[in-house]
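Example S7 (structure tokens).
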């Protein structure tokens, strides 16, 4: 299904359709503040396995991340955040950053890796955050498979390529081509492991 959703004022009926799809174990491609992402409900094991098949990876080795609605949502899926780190997260989020943090027990077992870490982000995108607010827990987030190419910015081209692999492609307009900046906060000093759209000044 191809759903055109207004980037500033998403149609509640369309959001409801997306939520029903996710809760039913469906997979979607949706806009973020960086690139279009591949997503599903973090509590739907079969959907997670499907995304891993699309990506060609095993769940525990997939290095998938969660997108969260806000910092309080994010804090459930990581172990206690120190006050200095919380201040950093608060100053950079919502935004084009993924923070690698120690995973809490709330992270589903299928997604727990050997390092016991999880990538967490809060995107600055109205459609993504409207979906998250309605879902009331994070979405699994993965980049589209293969090289990041120009056609991955155009929802219609994305739909042509993935319509048989996912349930819904959410058209929120032309997307970006640069992914989020990834910062490993599991050790000090914090380390940028991928330079992306977000400028890191710590």
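Recovered sequence:
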């Amino acid at each position: 299904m191809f759903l055109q959703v207004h980037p500033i004022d998403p149609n509640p009926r369309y959001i409801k359709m997306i939520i029903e799809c996710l809760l039913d174990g469906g997979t979607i491609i949706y806009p973020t503040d960086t690139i279009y992402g591949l997503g599903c409900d973090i509590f739907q094991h079969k959907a997670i396995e499907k995304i891993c098949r699309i990506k060609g990876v095993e769940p525990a080795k997939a290095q998938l991340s969660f997108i969260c609605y806000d910092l309080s949502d994010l804090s459930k899926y990581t172990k206690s955040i120190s006050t200095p780190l919380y201040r950093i997260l608060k100053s950079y989020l919502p935004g084009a950053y993924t923070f690698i943090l120690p995973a809490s027990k709330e992270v589903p077992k299928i997604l727990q890796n050997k390092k016991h870490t999880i990538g967490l982000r809060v995107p600055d995108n109205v459609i993504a955050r409207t979906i998250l607010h309605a879902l009331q827990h994070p979405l699994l987030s993965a980049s589209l498979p293969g090289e990041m190419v120009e056609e991955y910015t155009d929802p219609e081209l994305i739909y042509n390529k993935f319509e048989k692999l996912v349930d819904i492609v959410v058209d929120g307009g032309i997307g970006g081509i640069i992914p989020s900046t990834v910062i490993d906060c599991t050790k000090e000093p914090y380390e940028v492991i991928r330079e992306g759209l977000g400028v890191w000044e710590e």
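Notes on this example. Residues 2-194 form a domain with the DHBP synthase fold (CATH 3.90.870.10).
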